[in-house]
Amino acid sequence: MSDPGLIFPSSWTSSLAVNRGRARVCNLDARPRGALIARPEYKAHAAELLESNLKHSAPAFDKSTEEGMRFSIYRLGSLEVRTTQEPGAEEVVGAVFSIRNPTSTSGKEEGQRCLEAISPGERIIHASEFVERAFVPGGKASSLRRYYLVLETENSHTILMERLADGKVTWEEDPEELEDRNSLARITRSSACQTGVVVQDLKTYQATVAKGAAQAGVASPSVCKRFARSAYTRAVGSESMRGFISTPWWMDVAKEKMEAQQGEDAKKKSSFISLPSSMLKKL
Hints:
3 domains
């Protein structure tokens, strides 16, 4: 942002120059090359995010060329959304990047860490439940929400647990995109886990639910939400007396049918016309 290059107006370039490590930058807010990672998969959602979240805050970068072309950079969590806007036209998302700190660890070290298998006996020390906006094909946001659980182990590993709408129950160890995903979500609950909870406990619970979910098929948003909350409470201890026994899949299906039937009954009841008591006596 502070050193855009010769193709942009010279007034955009800062006169302040400092050195950060081996990378020469032009102000304290700038980052060395390699700190930004292109995330084209977020581009389809960026316009919706820009409208609902980023427009309420000032952009981190906002400059215009002599012809009136506007260049802006918005920040949302660990993401940067870069846009352009021609005079009299709508703002267009050009690229989305995730912000990384290349000095924290080398690519080789990080790759080796991701290849390390998490021991079944490794203790889980913290659990966080997240909720995020669900997107439909085409990048449009829906009114639905998705819930997922993030577990942290004593050796700084992370585990992502989630029940998807297609019925799958996921278990991902050290997912690379978790930081970006969390930056777009909201934490609903977060707590230290009860003493003695290990990876195998939650893995067994996930496998049990996955077996039933495969027979149940498509899961509604409420079923997916209940899975995240149930896994969370089992990890932090509020359901420790119940152990790690999952709810049978057929109970989820039965509850879904009961809720649907209650909705239909409520509609029918609202369509009835109540008569005054005086008319009922005459009848």
